[in-house]
Write a structure and sequence with these properties.
Length: about 675
């Protein structure tokens, strides 16, 4: 036990205390609670808890100073120096009714908290004030005991507010150009700010490029996390740091064994919090764990990332419609270092709902306030024709409508629709002039109307963006997507380019306002390839987006595709000729990832010929194709002779067989190799 007023002027202790006081900022609310208790207007016991380095010990020292200034005897106890309860005869119970006792690091000694609650504190005289500090919240038995209801007050200690964090950096002499990167790393965490400030001030040349070195990261890991029970526990914590939120299901995807046990351990850590979506660590803990793993084990980091990405990409595909935006946010969070910062709050401030008939008036009012009458007329036009495409966004607290969005799925357009909406007409014209829609495909046009106060980087904009990405990744047979924005801000434009969306030079006008169209051909870069591109480091590509992880696919019309199949059949023995075929750049071959495209094309063609044997009606077609293209007859006449067929009969069988192969492969190109009933679903050959 030590006194809070041992230091005398001129001593080293006095100097240390004075320096600490200059580094103490904020905590007005906590000081107000302590002052009320100090002067008899509050509780008898304060329980302060928060993660390591958040400033508990500094706050207790400030409490000691306030108590000493009030003329009350002060004692401080460090839980790390106490003997375990029951092993020492020393009795630190204060006898003075004016005493103030401060107990730090209460959770460093097993059983100390229970001993304090059951045996120590009941013997403290009335009027005395006890402050207990530890990393974990008090045991639930405090709250379950009615006797402690009015005597105990719990103070969770959070990060410093932004203004207080800036004041702390000022006190430590951090240059202006270093404050932004330091605060971006440390947020309001006092220990991270102080450690980062000490290093940043010495490394003055880093400027806005400053990042914490491994000494800072290692020190923070020791102070915030400490020793971990096992390698599995460390990996679980690293998963929790990398993911937006962690559930037992997510943990199982990365660590199949003991996921339940490890999840239970995670939720009890003092620097891990919970929300409706799962668990998440303190921001600084997240940052240092990420930085340490990427530096210490880059291969292990990549393996963990890939497992989580595969799991979350599947979640996007299978999530319910309501949960789809959140699933997209969780997936994008894994790539949070690429491009402009995102706001990954869970969107709880705003609610999304499908448009009802009685909401059409609200839609028109929001669209008018957001973009004017001409744009509102377009919204009303489409709401009448396709109400299922619209969603309305309201503030959850007040029900106030703040935004609307539409995702128009268009397989064909009539003249009235083209005339009613110049934005949709421009998107449709671009698709027809570039790579037109094929049978069963559609074009999607995304529109949004957001009230002026909520534009820019507001959370509702993020929710709308996640919804549109979900619509793209979950779509069936979508050829083109187009997102139309009136005066897009730089952050949104940069994100859309990052997502591989090209900006059209044509800007259709609604009234006096021009709209920028961002388009993407999902046949050239399907969802799987798009996700692979997103997984690459952000490098400016040809369209201003990420560098392509795979080449764009060729988008052929049915006639072009059939002609390419006929030519490839004739070139089947020659790999060099097959390598030049446009079929090697189609979805048909892209789905056979990892293979040489020419080899894959040859295998696909041979398999398509062999598949004809499964249908008794097609056996004769198989024989003609096999004799001509697989067994390499020098001439068609010789192939007919080997089959024992008249030449005209052979030619009829060969032509029909080629058309069947073209139809089967076209169906696979459109629907994928997992689609059932290729032949029955195929239309007549061209």
């Amino acid at each position: 036990m030590s006194s809070g007023s041992d230091n005398t002027s001129g001593s080293l202790g006095w100097r240390l205390q004075a320096t600490r006081e200059t580094a103490f900022v904020g905590r007005e609310e906590e000081l107000a609670v302590f002052t009320a208790a100090l002067y008899g207007g509050g509780c008898s016991v304060l329980y302060v808890h928060g993660p390591g380095g958040v400033g508990k010990s500094a706050l207790l020292r400030r409490f000691a100073g306030e108590a000493a200034a009030a003329g009350r005897p002060v004692s401080m106890v460090d839980g790390r120096t106490l003997e375990p309860p029951g092993t020492s005869e020393a009795d630190p119970v204060p006898r003075d009714a004016d005493a103030v006792l401060l107990v730090d690091n209460v959770d460093r000694v097993h059983g100390l908290e229970g001993w304090l609650r059951e045996r120590f504190l009941p013997r403290v005289p009335m009027g005395a004030l006890v402050v207990i500090a530890g990393r974990c919240p008090p045991d639930m038995r405090w709250q379950a005991d009615p006797g402690w209801a009015g005597a105990l007050e719990v103070l969770p200690l959070r990060d410093l507010r932004p203004g207080d964090a800036r004041a702390l950096m000022d006190a430590r002499g951090v240059p202006a150009e270093l404050r932004e990167p330091l605060q971006a790393f440390a947020g309001g965490h006092p220990l991270a700010l102080l450690l980062g400030a000490a290093v940043a001030v010495k490394d003055g040349g880093a400027g806005r490029r400053w990042t914490p070195d491994q000494d800072v990261v290692g020190t923070l890991l020791d102070q915030l996390v400490g020793e971990l029970p096992s390698a599995a526990h460390r990996r679980a914590l690293e998963v929790c740091a990398h993911a937006h939120t962690t559930t037992e299901d997510l943990l199982r995807a990365a660590l199949p064994q003991d996921a339940g046990t490890l999840f239970g351990w995670l939720r009890r850590l003092p620097f891990v919090e919970s929300c409706s979506l799962g668990l998440f660590p303190h921001d600084v803990v997240r940052e240092v764990l990420e930085a340490d793993l990427r530096w210490r084990d880059p291969e292990g980091y990549a393996v963990m990332h890939d497992r989580l990405r595969a799991h979350l990409a599947e979640k996007v595909r299978t999530a319910s419609d309501v949960d789809a935006p959140g699933a997209v946010a969780a997936l994008l969070y894994l790539h949070r270092g690429n491009g402009p910062p995102d706001d990954f709050r869970d969107g709880g401030e705003f609610g999304e709902e499908l448009l009802r008939q009685e909401d059409v008036g609200t839609l028109v009012r929001v669209a008018t306030a957001a973009e004017g009458t001409a744009s509102a007329d377009c919204a009303a036009f489409w709401a009448e024709r396709r109400p299922e495409a619209f969603r309305l966004y309201r503030r959850t607290g007040t029900g106030e409508p703040v935004a609307c969005s539409a995702w128009l799925r268009l397989a064909e357009l009539d003249e009235q629709e083209l005339a009613a909406d110049p934005v949709v007409a421009a998107a449709w014209a671009h698709a027809r002039a570039t790579t037109p829609l094929r049978a069963g495909e559609h074009l999607a046009v995304g529109r949004l109307w957001v009230l002026p106060p909520y534009r820019g980087h507001a959370p509702v904009m993020e929710v709308i963006r996640w919804r549109m990405i979900a619509d793209c990744l979950r779509a069936e047979r979508m050829a083109w997507s187009c997102v139309a924005l009136r005066h897009p801000n730089q952050a949104w434009a940069e994100r859309l380019r990052r997502y591989g969306m090209r900006v059209l030079s044509e800007q259709p006008r609604l009234g006096d306002d021009a709209h920028t169209l961002f388009v993407h051909d999902w046949r050239a870069v399907p969802a799987r390839a798009w996700l692979e591109r997103m997984n690459q480091p952000l490098v400016a590509g040809p369209a201003g987006g990420p560098a392509a992880a795979t080449a764009e696919l060729a988008v052929l019309s049915r006639a072009q595709f059939a002609e390419a199949v006929r030519k490839a059949l004739r070139q089947l023995p020659r790999l060099d000729a097959l390598a030049a075929s446009p079929l090697t750049r189609t979805r048909l071959i892209a789905e056979r990832a990892g293979q040489d495209p020419a080899t894959a094309l040859g295998e696909v063609l041979r398999q398509a010929i062999d598949d004809l044997r499964e249908d008794p009606r097609s056996v004769k077609f198989h024989r003609a194709l096999s004799a001509t293209y697989l067994r390499g007859a020098p001439t068609q006449e010789l192939a007919a002779e080997r089959l024992g067929l008249p030449f005209t009969t052979y030619r009829r069988h060969l032509t029909a067989g080629v058309e069947r192969v073209c139809a089967d492969l076209w169906h696979r190109e459109l629907y994928g190799t997992s689609a059932p009933a290729y032949r029955s679903a195929c239309a007549a050959p061209p």
